[in-house]
Known about the structure:
seven-stranded mixed sheet; 11 strands
Amino acid sequence: QVPLVESGGGLVQPGGSLRLSCTAPGFTSYGCGMHWYRQGTGKEREWVASISGGGTTTYAESVKGRFTISKDEAKETMYLQMSSLKHEDTAMYLCKAMSGLLCESSYWGQGTQVTVSS
């Protein structure tokens, strides 16, 4: 099992931007989807964005128009470009990658913290 590793989090002012990365050297998705989730302190984990094996993207309504998910399969890396950040975006951001012939297996990273504050 190859662990996923997120990076790029940090402290940013409202309206600012951050680019998160999720990488797993040696990991093979077999054409399955990849996803970003987030969980604020004391809150339930929520889905943020997904990119399918074919490259189709979907977003939670709360981030639509502000976040962009992408991937570079050659580098085995997924990205989340975040702009126009709000206080409510403060959370631990985690990536999830699916694998297996039926996309039945999920792999999680440990998360990267994003804090939006003045």
